Amino acid sequence: MSLLRYQVRADNFTPFFTLAQRSWATGEFRSEKRGLLGNMKRLLGWSGCRSSGLCGCIPRMLGRNLHDSASATCSLQYLPPIIGTATLPFDLTGSTALITGGTQGVGAAIAIAIAGSGGNVVLHGLRDDDAAQQTLAACRAQGANADLLLGDLAGPTEDCIGRLFDSATAAHPEINMLVNNAGTYIDVPFLEMDFERYQRTMQLNVAAGFFLTQAFARRWVDRQARGRVLFTGSINGQLAEPDHVAYDSSKGAVLAMVKSLCVALAPHGIRVNGMAPGLVKTPLTGVLETDQDLDAWMRLHTPNGRVPEASACGGAAVFLLSDEAEHVHGQMLLVDGGMSAWQQPDMPTQLRGKLS
Ligand SMILES: NC(=O)c1ccc[n+]([C@@H]2O[C@H](COP(=O)([O-])OP(=O)(O)OC[C@H]3O[C@@H](n4cnc5c(N)ncnc54)[C@H](O)[C@@H]3O)[C@@H](O)[C@H]2O)c1
Ligand SMILES: O=C(O)[C@H](O)[C@@H](O)[C@H](O)[C@H](O)CO
């Protein structure tokens, strides 16, 4: 049993703190959970909060967001107003994520953001190459334990999922977050699409995430562990493109799966959400680096005028995985610069004028 005395300015925690904003919370916190007090100190350090020699936090936050069986007491003291806003750290300390397709692109950006938020990562990818090694190094540079597992998730479902699940849980039994990110698109006009390419798209983009989530959910339910699952969807799960019928169908399925899994797994304490990028720069969309016309067209059709690096997806992923999103279930968060909010971006102004 360890003891932490705390004194914290309440306006640093307004999202959680329903009491008077101009106040100090002081009190004691006892925990039997190893490492939790260290986490609390780190959390408070990050939020720039002043402490009374020792660090601490409000009991409500401890009880609700860290799921600890801790006891805490609290008293309040009225203080003059303090100007400034809180920054809330999304702390993943003590968590380990398996990220499929985590070696490059969007998956690597998610991995690096998780590492930067205190979590550990197990990257999964098709090959061990320079990109994979760079991502591992970037995660380790942030203090994370980082491992790499390889395998092809577009193969026969039970074999490839079973192999990844067995090797990941054998090496990292503590995995409590699954990021189903690996995906591919095959850009073929609908009338030319064949069964083999359709099936490969669906196997990787849909079936792999379905069965990997099932394997981890069974494990977490058995162990009464609160797992978290994040899918990488796409804006194409909600908006169509002519030559993307298989891809769009797969991402539409991911959107529906996030909602269905939420309903199936929330009663077990498992949270499932998705993050849907618009167009971001990754090896998959490498043409953007060389094709100025395409890049310019995409900027023109994105309200914030940007086609960002994949790192733009990291913050949304970390938020959805964090305890700060504890009541966020079954959502697909679009990270698209506003593209999906823009109705008929191609309509010329003179035609649009006729509508008004
Ligand atoms: N780049 C974008 O603009 C964009 C936009 C929306 C959604 N997405 C989605 O983001 C996810 C990642 O895309 P990206 O752009 O980073 O792609 P990418 O090609 O840069 O990276 C793909 C990752 O998946 C892994 N992978 C590929 N095929 C695999 C297989 N058969 N088995 C196992 N792993 C495999 C690769 O090793 C790599 O780590 C995908 O689900 C994609 O649909 C990307
Ligand atoms: O999911 C994705 O990989 C992206 O959304 C792409 O499909 C782009 O949106 C499209 O290529 C632009 O036209």
Automatic annotation (TrEMBL):
What family is this protein classified in?
A: Belongs to the short-chain dehydrogenases/reductases (SDR) family.
Q: Does the keyword Glycosyltransferase apply?
A: no
Q: Name one GO molecular function term.
A: gluconate 5-dehydrogenase activity
Q: Does the keyword Coiled coil apply?
A: no
E.C. no: 1.1.1.69
Q: Which Gene3D superfamilies does the UniProt entry name for this protein?
A: NAD(P)-binding Rossmann-like Domain
Outline the extent of the Ketoreductase domain. Answer: 95-242
Q: Which organism is it from?
A: Rosistilla ulvae
Query: What is this enzyme's class at the first EC digit?
Result: oxidoreductase
InterPro entries in UniProt = KR_dom, NAD(P)-bd_dom_sf, SDR_fam
Q: What is this protein called?
A: Gluconate 5-dehydrogenase
- Superkingdom assignment: Bacteria
Keywords for this entry?
Oxidoreductase
